[in-house]
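Hi W.,

Here's what went into the run:
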Amino acid sequence: MAVDYSLYLITDRHLVGNKDFYRSVIKALEGGVTLLQVREKNVSSREFYEISLKLKKIARQYDVPLIINDRLDIALAVDADGLHIGQDDLPVATARKLLGREKILGYSVSNEEEALYGERHGADYLGAGPVYATDSKKDAGRPIGTEGLKKIKQTVNIPVVGIGGISAENLADVKRTGADGISVISAILSRDDTYRAAKELIDLWNE
Amino acid sequence: MAVDYSLYLITDRHLVGNKDFYRSVIKALEGGVTLLQVREKNVSSREFYEISLKLKKIARQYDVPLIINDRLDIALAVDADGLHIGQDDLPVATARKLLGREKILGYSVSNEEEALYGERHGADYLGAGPVYATDSKKDAGRPIGTEGLKKIKQTVNIPVVGIGGISAENLADVKRTGADGISVISAILSRDDTYRAAKELIDLWNE
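Here's what came out:
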């Protein structure tokens, strides 16, 4: 599957509230989001499953692949396009084996060692960061900066997406590292007009 | 796989503390536990995976099947003998499909309607309860009593295990319902001598 990593939106219902959540995501997809990840913590498996089913239908309408964060069981249950795992999730080789070769497997890294490990054990792409300080993920480590992102990108042959505190203001710096795209949460979901937020980001990226 | 449901231990690390957790489980297996379930909440997937791998090795030594609570991905990743799901987890038919026919699938029910639903959609056994009030599971509903357990047992053809507040004191009443076994947490794990606790329960059950 040819995947466009340019503008990768990760969901966070807490930033938008339940009521407008799906509408916010739809508008962001209309604005130009190219890849969508469902990230849910502290919900029941059933709720995670139901949310993912809904987002899968929505993503299909925009021809955007849907990726599930952490939970391989949810990814399999909704037949998502892929899975994204971090250092605290299932081992990457185990996830690849259970997910099959056809699905997209992403892996979170913050240094070159983790990047090489992920590439060698079956990841299709890497989410590298946090590039900048961020409030969206409480357990994110120390920022690696654009320098850290650049090193990771130069270390591996698979696509690398920058994540963490990326916005319209610093997007050009991130792009200059050679990264294949940016992954955002609050830069889109904390904005009232998620269509415009996504449109601005993708236009800047494509400049 | 012929499964002995007589004395089904569900793990709860919070009742014993991390230090003595594995030792407590080993002693309980030596005492006569016939089936072991790993239940973990609010841990990372990696931690759940690591704990399950350890308990699988331990359970193997006693020829006791290992069942994973809720998380199909962990069950697949450690190649557990089965999965136990509740009303807030993946749909039972979805779980059965992804788990395959060879593995044990358990389903939590509290009434006859849920019991029939589980039986029809692929469950191998039912965990029915709470029979009595219990502190071990915060979100457990109103006790169904031995009457409720008996009705469930008479409604389905698959094995039914009573759960919730079962101890040496009320075990005879539970057995009289026709249930195929008892599932316990604190009746074993909150005791200092988990070997003796398990031995007492299995001896009473086999009387």
